Amino acid sequence: MTEELDLITFDAGGTLFDMRPSRDDVFVRILTERFEGLDRERMVAVLRKADRAFDQEFALQDGKNEDPFWLKYDRFVFGELGLKTDFPVMHKELSSAFDEIIPRVECWVEYRETKRILEGLRRRDFRLGVISNATDLTRRVLDHLGLMKYFDFVIVSDEVGFRKPESEIFRIAGKRAKASLNRSLHVGDKYSVDVVGARKAGMNAILVDRAGAYDDLDCVCARDLNYFSAFIRD
Q1: For the chain, percent helix, then strand, then coil, each to nearest 5?
Q2: Angle, CA of 191, 81 and 194, to the nearest 5°
Q3: Are 9 and 186 in contact (CB under 8 A)?
Q4: Mean pLDDT of residues grouped by 10 in the chain (234 residues)?
Q5: Distance CA 146, CA 3 (A)
Q6: Which of 233, 111, 127, 113 is nearest to 177 (CA)?
Q7: Which helix (H) or strand (E) holds 221?
Q8: Which pLDDT score, from 0 to 100, does residue 165 have?
Q9: What is the pLDDT of residue 234?
Q10: Nearest to 115 by CA among 203, 226, 13
Q11: What is the Cα gyration radius of the chain?
Q12: Strand order of the sheet with strand 184-188?
């Protein structure tokens, strides 16, 4: 496959780096502080179920007014866990926790394999880029983590006026890299955002499914970026 590729683009959060504390950690901490008898494994399983249930709807969000979406998402999680009290209060507490964590660059950490894989891909002379549905926070996090040096370009939806899964944001990547989209690969952790969007634009796509939540989709799924170890072997 590597001989057929000129460009590899990556989603940012959930693909190259993640929050610390993680999304799962935040949910578990807040809910276990309020409700007795909740098991972490069960809560995480419900979050995976919610991710699957809301995958397509998440792809429709505009990045500006997502509060109704997350209200519906949290209500689903509470319903699956059988939590029938204090939902408005708990939803507000969850939202406040994420609002405090997400903007802080120091609360984002790269996955263990990220730098090794990116270094290997650079040695193989692939053109590398980032396509992120985000604000300039993506650039600041990449810079803070020392990842910016691996990429030929970074495309942020807030800056270009298009969001994944819109085809135009992938076309912009192809133009930046002077690469044909049919010789390009996009890697991301959201099926309807990353895989569907990339394919519609004419790119190849790989879904990074770190939690093993997607085991029945019509695409290549990788548990993490170590999938690319085969790309960088001599």
Answers
A1: 55, 15, 30
A2: 10
A3: yes
A4: 82 97 96 91 95 95 92 96 88 96 97 97 95 97 98 97 98 97 97 98 96 85 94 70
A5: 28
A6: 127
A7: strand 220-222
A8: 98
A9: 54
A10: 226
A11: 18
A12: 153-156, 127-132, 7-10, 184-188, 204-208, 220-222
Distances (CA, A) of 41 to 44, 61, 73: 5, 28, 19
Asked if 131 contacts 16 with a C-beta cutoff of 8 angstroms, the reply is no
* Cα 105 from Cα 183, distance rounded (Å): 33
Could you tell me the end-to-end alpha-carbon distance of the chain, in angstroms, rounded to an integer? 15
pTM above 0.85, yes or no: yes
Answer positive or negative: Cα dihedral of 19, 96, 209, 191: negative
Q: What is the residue type of 82?
A: G
DSSP symbol at 38: -
Backbone angles phi, psi at 108, to 5 degrees: -120, 135
